[in-house]
User: Fold these one by one.
Assistant:
Number 1:
Amino acid sequence: MSLSPWRSHLARNLSQHLSQPQSRYLQLATVGMDGRPANRTIVFRGFLDRPDQLKTDQLKFVTDVRSQKASHIQHNPYGEVCWYFTKTREQFRIAGTLHLITSDEPNPSMQQARRIGWQELSDSGRSQFAWADPGQPSADSSEISLGEPPDRDHPLKHFCLLLLEPTQVDHLELRGNPQSRCLYVCDLDRNWSSQSINP
């Protein structure tokens, strides 16, 4: 499976921003049960690799199954991320289908990917999944006990691997006059086409 045509542009941006950890932060929009959009910042965790070592286009993130975004995705699996790179002045809007890989995921390879995602987190990152339910009223902070970090080899039940399978990528380059913009679209057979469009 060859890499999608937009991947090289995204890889170049990530490489040029290695010294800026914040470049791995992007915004994810989902649709709530009331039909309204919801947006939040998440951390890019790389691309999903298949067990046969082939690369995929699926972007990896992590979330808590108790979070609002997880309930949004269960109700409506479509979402879009928006990613802006400050040094190169390039924006990527990546739309597609969101997949939640939870503790009861039946696919063994996806469960393995979930375990790897858990192991790649820092101790403090793993500890966040032992906190109280996200979005609920909080207790007095003096009553919260952080305790020992969870076991690195056994993901907590609340931990979820979140995958975005792109179906459309809108790449805007703000440098230059005129600016450059390209739209990449994926068909049902996972073949990508591209077209230059007006900025």
Number 2:
Amino acid sequence: MVKVLFVCLGNICRSPMAESIFKQLVQERQLSSQISTDSAGIQGWHVGKSPDRRTLEVLSEHNIETSHVGQKLSVADLTTYNHIAVMDEANFEAVYNFYYENLNATPPARKLFLIRDFDPEVEGVQEVQDPYYEDKKVFRKVFDTLRRSCNALIDYIVEEHNLTPEEPAEDEYSD
């Protein structure tokens, strides 16, 4: 099982949105038995809370549901997950330092990266904008950015880990 963790600052906007988008795309590609995902925050401000209402509204606009509750990045996450995708440079630096301080090692580039490293439309800044203090229009922009990036990340994971889609279950009533 390939495990992917999305990380942002508080785990109520960007990372749970990325987790939910990624999970839907994995299901659509029939890879659910081979790829799992979750999300966490650098800070513990929102542990146990649902995602921001605007995150939930934008996900709902795309028929994506989530049952995620906020959680803080843990030392166990550093070894549990094959890939840790962060939203911005500050998150990257925090996770990098957390990794180094707790595992006395530098995280491999294939393990820790900015999610927009996979965005085919990236220009300039490779960060996902933090929409927390913005209106829903920015949340929609974040959704589009994350969808593109997650699609390309799945392509990478499929190739890197040599995955193939599951065969659809046969309908017992079909001819």
Number 3:
Amino acid sequence: MRSLDPACKFVGLLVPTFFLAAFSNPFWNLVFFALCFLGLCFSKVNLKVFVGIMAPVLLMAFAMFMTGYHFPAQGNLPVNAQSLHISSSAVYNGLLMSSRVLAYAAAGLLFALTTDRIIMVRSFQQHFHLPQAFAYGLLAAWGVFPHMAQEYRRARVALRMRGQKAWPVSPAVLKPLLVKSVRWSEELAIAMESKGFSGKAKRTQFQPCHIKPVDILFLLLSCVVWPTLLFLL
């Protein structure tokens, strides 16, 4: 998954979610979740990061199951619950809601944990014609984020040295951070203008993003084969 073009990967993961929304069947939601989970395993993502993100996702899925279980839909089910070995509409409704949470979360995690953000911006700019101003802005913002985190820690340490309580969202911590963020953005904008960066000028690509045969194969499997299976089965 890491070798796929980010633009193709984005389309290949977004399109199946629309088809899942059109079908009220928890089985296909769980199949999609299993496929995304296998993709994460083969991509060798950071296990600690994956577990840390999946913990609230599983909690949300459990909450959605209990919500659907206690507030089932009245009337006929979209499929025969008895053929799926489901005892009641409450269980089926809970499985439907919780499985959708797992499916959509798995698709987002598969894209986020296997995609380099710099290559993603370049791919979106070249394939989706993302305006240069937005592309430069995203790259610049990601460059400023580490400095913001460091400044946030410095502000909290400075307040503790003075014997003052520093809550995580205390105005005494956020105000200096906001002022310095504005200064950084102004300095960065001036530096980019002085170096000739412009949102309208035509530029060559330092790192062209080419669509490979494996990208086309992934799009065919996710945008053609997967919807066909949903309609036929």
Number 4:
Amino acid sequence: MTKKTIFILMAVIIAIAVQAQQFQKGTTIANAGIGLGTALGGLGKARPAISLSVDHGMWDIGGPGVISLGGYIGNTGYKYTDMGYTAKWNYTIVGVRGAYHYNGFTHIPELDIYGGVMLGYNIAKYSSDSGDDSLGSSYGSGLGLSGFLGGRWFFTEQLGVYAELGYGVSALNVGVTYKF
């Protein structure tokens, strides 16, 4: 093979690899993470926040980017024990989300930078073994709108890690990500 043929072949392989790594219309990615920090209230020992989210590329918007739609579910809670009294708080957030994925970093194909909004419903539950559940009304369930910023780094074609700042069950989520 000539140098020119080898060069063209390598350029095609690199172009295919770059295209395959970028978040595109039709791409589906799932995240599983552990959260740090929360704005959800409770006393005592906090249970680690866990979350699952999915994003699916819906629209190529012409510039260097794709709009995705997806879902989110997360859970955290607290347990407080003092002199035989135990109280528990449990929070589950279920939401739908949309995000803009910036694809302009063509020289870093392993990177997916995104930001978006989520409409979620917080299912809040309070219980105590004292029989007095009057505090339960101050931890009500409700609808909320939040924003998030995140990034994913892919080590292979399908497997990577992610970090996401924003409001869900925690202020910062980190974990693994999988591309379908």
